[in-house]
Specification:
- The complex is a heterodimer of chains A (121) and B (113).
- Chain A is an all-beta fold.
- Chain A has no helices and 13 strands.
- In chain A, strands 2, 4, 5, 6, 9, 12 and 13 form a seven-stranded mixed sheet that branches. In chain A, strands 1-3-8-7 form a four-stranded antiparallel sheet, with no helix packed on it. In chain A, strands 10-11 form a two-stranded antiparallel sheet.
- Chain B has 113 residues and is an all-beta fold.
- Chain B is 0% helix and 59% strand.
- In chain B, strands 2, 4, 5, 9, 10 and 11 form a six-stranded mixed sheet that branches. A five-stranded antiparallel sheet of chain B has the order 1-3-8-7-6, with no helix packed on it.
- The chains are: A mainly beta (121), B mainly beta (113).
- At the A-B interface, strand 4, strand 5, strand 9 and strand 12 of A face strand 4, strand 5, strand 9 and strand 10 of B.
Chain lengths: 121, 113
């Protein structure tokens, strides 16, 4: 089956502009995660969704960053008034997550997409 | 706060050599530990996941071990090949509410023909 997909693969924007990054999780995965990776570093957590709601947004660096997942599937990471320091690889992941029927987590294993390389000039 | 450290930061070996990559973490209360591979400019490919109750996992030439009490994991690669050249990342999922992975900075492996 299809894996996690992210669009665009590359995005170049000017300082001060607004950008949206999209993530399509694996079908049936209820949990979705956003991470940011700077050059030479490991990925750092930004936010994760269980269904439509943000379960933990403690990694968002400031109020210029916002993410939504209105129907519990596709998610969009939105960055306002971009700065050069926002340049990084943005990674999305999904997992089976919480089963509302059984009340248990199906699996914590996270599957990553190819990422979006954001460059702010 | 969970912290993950990977040693060495970079490693260069001749083809055919067996090698070990190290990962340590500060909080032993984890659900699992994952090893990933990342090629330059690409996303992450999951290699192995070890649950907290497990001691090791194997996939082909890869073997990952976990010593939760000491906060350590190793990734063993047998008979290395040039195609193994990549950055290897270790990540842990800590107990306590959030499902975020905490990553190390990775080990950049170069296998020379």
């Amino acid at each position: 089956g299809a894996g996690v997909s992210q669009t665009p693969s590359n995005k170049v924007t000017e300082k001060g502009k607004y950008v949206e990054l999209r993530c399509d999780p694996i079908s049936g995965h209820t949990a979705l995660y956003w991470y940011r990776q700077s050059l030479g570093q490991g990925p750092e957590f930004l936010i994760y969704f269980q269904g439509t709601g943000a379960a933990d947004d403690s990694g968002l660096p400031n109020d210029r960053f916002f993410a939504v997942r209105p129907e519990g599937s596709v998610s969009t990471l939105k960055i306002q008034r971009t700065e050069r320091g926002d340049s990084a690889m943005y990674l999305c992941a999904s997992s089976l997550g919480y089963d509302w029927t059984s009340g248990r987590v199906n699996s914590y294993e996270q599957y990553f997409g190819p990422g979006t390389r954001l460059t702010v000039t | 706060k969970q912290e993950v450290t990977q040693i060495p930061a970079a490693l260069s070996v001749p083809e055919g050599e067996n090698l070990v990559l190290n990962c340590s973490f500060t909080d032993s209360a984890i659900y699992n530990l994952q090893w990933f591979r990342q090629d330059p400019g690409k996303g992450l490919t999951s290699l192995l996941l070890i649950q907290s109750s497990q001691r090791e996992q194997t996939s082909g030439r890869l073997n990952a071990s976990l010593d939760k009490s000491s906060g350590r994991s190793t990734l063993y690669i047998a008979a290395s090949q040039p195609g193994d050249s990549a950055t290897y990342l270790c990540a842990v999922l800590t107990q306590g509410g959030s499902e975020k992975l905490v990553f190390g900075k990775g080990t950049k492996l170069t296998v020379n023909p």
